Amino acid sequence: MMSTARPARRFASRTAAKASAALVVLLAASGITSCSAPAQGSEGAQGDALKVTASTSVYGSLAQAVGGEDVAVESIISSPSQDPHSYEATARDKLTLSHAKLVVLNGGGYDDFAVQIVDSLSSKPAVIKAMEGEGHSHEGEHAEESSGEAAKESAQDDHAHEHAEGNEHVWYDLHQMQHLATKLKDGLSEADPDNAAGYSERAEQLTQKLKGLEERAHGLETKAKGASYVMTEPVPQALLDTAGLKNVTPKGLAESIEEGNEIAPLAMKSATESLEAGKVSVFAFNSQTADDQTNALKAAAQKGGVPVLDVTETLPEGQDYLSWMGKNIDALEEALDAAK
Q1: Whether residue 158 sits in one domain with residue 102
Q2: Same domain, 158 and 198
Q3: Which of residues 199, 215, 231 is at a domain's end?
Q4: CA pseudo-torsion sign 137, 138, 139, 144
Q5: Is 2 within a domain?
Q6: Rounded distance, CA 60 to CA 77, Å?
Q7: Does the pLDDT at position 23 exceed 70?
Q8: What residue spans carry the region label Disordered (predicted)?
């Protein structure tokens, strides 16, 4: 059996949450509540600007787009080398969050380290979550050959609904990010009424740009007709679904990878054979959390001439959210053009 090179992400997430909780207790006991040092991912204006802290650079970028020069945004996770699922909060993170007037989170259990710290603060900032409730991964399942085409279509429809409701990787959902723009406008305006007009104007500008990106993704549906994808993790699933591709990831594969477990032999065999035979249109590969298993699947895709769509969970260096998503759509279109 093939061994994985990284620890279980869900287990690591629980471990990180425990570490964050321990840190909260330690800092509370020491009475530390503030610090002058900025967090690693600092953007925008400083001085008297409204202090906003985001769990990741994705939400830092979106908060900056709405806040403009009226906010000072700091992102706790800002490096593509960091895995948000297993991130362990530091004392500096708590001190950064304690300074914030507004905190922007993904929610859905994705960035619980920040939730725990905010909950521990005596003076709590306002919190905006892109996703309410608990998230969990969903992946498509191959319908049994005997079930008929109607059953296959029904399974896909059900899956699409479940994805929208349960996949915590909501920043790849361009429609949901439009709702977040409104939440950001409302939260910033409440925290800083004097600059409400500016927040409203910039939120509208962001919403229109997000709509443009969503229209671009929907515009790929013609090219994507009959196209399918296998994904290593459900990170880009919303974007792929928006573009009209069919999810043919074997049952249990993406979940096993996300949890850091070994893929079931039958699922691994099915995916490998489909990729090597070129039966899949696009292979969506989370390069930020690659391991032996996902690299083997990538090699199978390359052997079969299946275009590989590289995706990440946080912003690449030097990009903002809009440019990043635009490049993801460009890359998907190129992959569809190259697909057999």
Answers
A1: no
A2: no
A3: 215
A4: positive
A5: no
A6: 9
A7: no
A8: 132-163
* 217 conformational bin, left if phi > 0, alpha if psi -120 to 50, beta if neither: alpha
Backbone angles phi, psi at 262, to 5 degrees: -70, 140
238, two tokens: 């919303």
Tell me the residue ranges of DSSP E strands in 173-302. Answer: 228-231, 246-247, 282-286
Burial class (CB in 10 A: 0-12, 13-18, 19+), 36: exposed
Total domains, the chain: 2
Q: Do 41 and 156 fall within a single domain?
A: no
Query: Where do we find the tokens 């990106």?
Result: 213
Instruction: Look up the domain containing 105 and give its range.
Output: 9-135+168-215
Strand, helix or coil for residue 271: helix
Contact of 39 with 72, CB cutoff 8 Å: no
**What pLDDT does residue 43 have?**
55
Q: In the prediction, which pLDDT does 134 show?
A: 62
Condensed to tens digits (0 to 9), the pLDDT of residues 266-295 reads 999 999 999 999 999 999 999 988 999 999
Instruction: Check if the beta carbon of residue 117 is closer than 8 Å to that of residue 87.
Output: no
